[in-house]
Amino acid sequence: MSDAKGLTRQQMCDRLAMEFEDGWIVNLGIGIPTLCSNYDFGDRQIIFHSENGVVGYGPLTAPGKEDLHLVNAGGQHVTMNPGSAIVHHADAFGMIRSGRIDVTVLGAYEVAENGDFANWKMAGQKGGGIGGAMDLAACAKHVFVAMEQTTRRGAPRLVERCAIPVTAKGAVDLVVTNYGLFEITPDGMALKEIAPGISVDEVKATVGCYLIVPAEVPPVRMRG
Predict the structure, then answer these.
(1) Is this model's pTM higher than 0.90 or not?
(2) Which is the catalytic residue, given 51, 110, 113, 148?
């Protein structure tokens, strides 16, 4: 759970999970996005894919019931659904690069109003590698981002242009934060839904870009 104002991290991921369509193959990035697998999809069949070769896994494992040999790409213990499989790391990337991933949900440091995003290297950081996010951003049919609205110092993460090394340009479709749901449109970034207890003025004060705001902003859809 997030300590920040607005939605919890699980609520953020639940909202993105509502967008997954029946039969989709979904890749979840390290960090907040992994919580998407905890959502109850009902009759929808969602196939979760991990770069380390776990295909068809389910929710994160309850404490004390972990299989120490079974983890997602972030090292978290997961459950396995009927029909799931363990494949070679190269085959997992083969699925990505051949365009078989319907959506990837990634974390980010910044998302720009034109859909650019940065999630692999902070300003001034030495070394590091861009990793699988590069492949996912280039090859997945949709890219969603889950992140906090601001940094720990209160700086905006939704910006006019990314100030740190970009992972991919124009790739992002949807962003969920603890403040709401945002869509990248041809005209820029739009506020689609707002978190309970958050005002439009608060949202505007915590972004570093022009934000398209409709006359009426509905609340973030909740599970239940």
Answers:
(1) yes
(2) 51
